[in-house]
User: Fold DUF2721 domain-containing protein from Roseicella aquatilis.
Amino acid sequence: MSGLTDVAEIDRAIQLAIAPAFLMTGVFGLITILANRLARLIDRERAVRAGTAAPQMDEQRFIALRARHLHRAIGSCVLAAFLLALLIVMSFVGILLQLNVAWVLAGLLVLAMVSMMIALLLLLMEIGLAFRHLPLAHDV
Assistant:
């Protein structure tokens, strides 16, 4: 391979890596949202346990269930980010070693998106639990 071809191949690999890198930015944003929600739950649980906040009926059970959903959602997002990073690595490896990795790349992208969808569903479930636990939720 000539030097010019090497540069063209690397340029192509970089172009292919841009979309998954942008997707990773979105995943990291979702992780931030999930971590903030989890931190607020932990703060609330500590305040209830310390007696500085009045607990609502069955609140500790709801907090634990919500925290479990958030923990799983964060794990699912981390898995999605890992799969996207692996996709970027595999695209470079495929181009540099002249391997046909199209099916591998497609599979990694599909798995990353499924993992992201699971995280979003877990977030939706956690929000539903939070809404049901609101005192106002019973009035609607």
Q: What stands out?
A: The chain has a mean pLDDT of 88. Residues 41 and 64 are 9 Å apart (CA to CA).
